[in-house]
Amino acid sequence: MTTAIEPALVADGIAKRFGTREALRGVSLRADGGELVALVGPNGAGKTTLLSILAGIQSADAGNVNRPPRDIGWVPQQTALYGKLTVAENLRLFARLEKVEDPNATVAEMLALTGLDERANDLAGELSGGNRQRVNIALGLLGRQDVLLLDEPTAALDPRQRARVWEFVLGLAARGTTVVYSTHDLQEAARHAQRVVVLADGEVLFEGLPATLGDEVERAGGSHTDFEEAFVAFLRQRGH
Amino acid sequence: MRWLLLKDLRILRRSPALVALLILYPVVLSVLIGFALSAGPDKPKVAFVSLVPPGETAVEVGGQRVDLERYQGPLFESIERVPVDCEGKTALQCEQAAIDEVESGEALAAVIIPEDFATRLGGLQTLALSGPPTIKVVYNADDPVKAAYVEDTLRARLSEANLALSSRFTEAGLSYLDRVVDGGTIDAPGTDGIKILGLRNAERIVERVRSSVTPEQRAELDRVIRFSQLARENLGFSEPLVRSLREPIRVEQVALDGGDTSLSSFAVALAAAVSLMFVTLLLAAAALALEREENTFARLVRGLVSRTSLLLEKAGLAALCSFAICLAMLAGLGLFVDLDWARLPLWLPALAAGGLAFGTLGVAVGALTREVRAASLLCVMLALPLTFLALVPSGSVEPAVYDAARFVSALFPFRPTLDALDAALNDSGGLAGPLLHLAALAVAFGALARVALRRFV
User: Fold this and answer.
1) What span, in angstroms and rounded, lies between the C-alpha atoms of B251 and B159?
2) How many CB pairs under 8 A join A and B?
3) In chain A, which residue's Cα lies nearest the Cα of B6?
4) Per-residue tens of pLDDT for chain A, all 240 residues
5) Which of B2, B7, B10, B307 is most worth mutating to test chain A (most A CB atoms within 10 A of its CB)?
6) What are the structural domain ranges in chain A?
7) With an 8 Å Cβ cutoff, are B303 and A56 in contact?
8) Which domains does chain B carry?
9) Are the C-beta atoms of residues B456 and B370 closer than 8 Å to each other?
10) Hey, are the CB atoms on B303 and A70 less than 8 Å from each other?
11) ipTM, 2 decimals?
12) Which residue does chain A place closest to B287, by CA atoms?
């Protein structure tokens, strides 16, 4: 007898329309506990819309999600913190709003986790882009949810800052946090994701291991040397 | 909500330039508006020359000496007198010197009292047909506003002097009537006194000789006696008539709306309302729009804070800050203007209700514009015309325009806030009506802001 493992996140038939434009057409997604899932696709594919619906920022026109928004951690594409507050004050404010049991202990833990102990009393507005993003991610983790959504977490960061963010995110996944992230950096998707979901024009075109995307391209008569070429060829074969 | 409020206060504390601007701008603006409305224009500069020789400024009116210099006082209170140097000059040169002051721009007008002024004034009570005394006024009409002001001021002051002098002449005229009835001596300039027999004495004389004349002559004398009696009686009736001619129209003033608020007290209410409006509107709108600009709105409303709570927090924060600022401003103004501190318990609900209504309007502006700069601009664009619309006095424009201005004013919190503050500060009317009006507006703008937040992310 086998026991089915309940997926950490299940979204089923999500649809969203902005006026006459269909942003999402019945998108379904699932992610298991501790899994890293990358959402990739061209601009306007619907990645941010899907993540914001999963996070409860926007409502879907159709479809459902197996978790309420409060049970999902969310890190928006643009850093969402108060520039006139210090790093510690930002963390403490949101910890209190999250109603965590011991806000000060949680702040100390997040500062240690993000390696920002020494910058705790610096104003958030005076931090570098990479450090702001680390605070942004820490704010998404305050509620200690076991599912975390990251919308282009390393956009506009230099390679060193990107590496620090990924070190941090991979550590979370290693501790059992399910991470769904969107990215335009295909090398990043191929390197870190256990599963890739390709979205285009609001539809899921592919879902599977990064390596199998190349197989799909070859089956359709195409060729590629790396994941990025496979991705571009795949979209071309599908008329995008 | 408590943590959000503390966060916003901390952010404000760390933005000293913004806070200073937010406080100083409305306070300075409102005090300027208030006192510009309450203070009249400066006294006009007027060159005054009296060519009446010294020692000849008094005239005899009805046996009493009237010194004309007494009537210059009210005029000098209304003008800034520009000295004219007449030393060693003829009357004509002195008059020209006064006119030169006007032409050079030193004075807006010149008032010239001619040499024969007192003589002509005294001549009004004699049969001398020299004509009434005339004061010459020369003024510069380059600036129509100033010219109108000078003209109005001088006309008003000279009317007062005319009225005072006419009272004297009336009394003198009435004393002549008494002499005509009862007999006596009339003092007139240039005479030793004119002896008047009087109707009553004439009547007695005629009655004495009546018995010694023929019946035909007696009948004639009876007609004279009858005429004398009728004349005496009718002249008696003429006294109140002549007195009423002195001031035929009296004015009884009754204020229907607004009680008896003085202009300076109203200016304080106006200054407080303008400050309350600017501080609350700008703070509420900017605080809400800032949540979007910092991208924190989406993070907050996904289960941490409800949208309605967020609106209440921003409107409350703005109302709280403006409440404190306006209270401090009133305390400051109290040093210069007489405020009734016993009415403080009424000021508080007026300030609080006005603050909340402006706060909800502010969050509605912030929710609709979604950007701090656009929100601030819209607040200023709304505030200024609302202030002017609310201050349009009835009768100054066409009735339809006035009704439209009142209607538009009633849709925004400025007019009811001004009414509430005027009632609270100056006891100019009921406070409950404006407070209810403000409560209704707060609910309406709160609902508008809540709807606008749907597309805020």
Assistant:
1) 16
2) 59
3) A93
4) 455 567 889 999 999 998 888 899 999 999 998 899 999 998 888 999 999 999 988 889 999 999 888 889 889 888 899 999 999 999 999 999 988 889 999 999 888 877 888 899 999 999 888 888 889 988 988 887 889 999 988 886 778 778 878 888 888 889 889 999 999 888 888 889 999 999 998 999 889 888 888 888 888 777 777 788 888 888 888 887
5) B7
6) 1-72+146-240, 82-144
7) yes
8) 2-39+262-455 (no CATH), 45-167 (3.40.1710)
9) yes
10) yes
11) 0.81
12) A82
Pick the CATH number of A1-72+146-240 from 3.40.50.300, 3.40.50.720, 3.40.50.2300, 3.30.365.10: 3.40.50.300
Closest chain B C-alpha to A117 CA, distance in angstroms:
21
For residue B447, count other CB atoms closer than 10 A to its CB.
13
Instruction: Give the gap in angstroms from C-alpha A62 to the nearest C-alpha of chain B.
Output: 18
Integer Cα distance of A207 and A31 in angstroms: 11
Residues from chain B that touch A74, judged by Cβ atoms under 8 A, are: 299, 302
Give, in degrees to the nearest 5, the angle at Cα B154 between B150 and B157. 145
User: Buried b vs exposed e over B68-84: b needs ≥16 C-beta within 10 Å?
Assistant: beebbeebeeebeebeb
Q: Which token pair is B250?
A: 């009296």
Residue to substitute from B302, B307, B453, B454, interface A, most A β-carbons within 10 A: B302
How many of the other CB atoms lie within 10 Å of CB of B16? 9
Query: Which residues does chain A have within 8 Å of residue B372's beta carbon, measured at their own beta carbons?
Result: none
State both tokens at B184: 């006596």
B9 contact A CB<8A = no
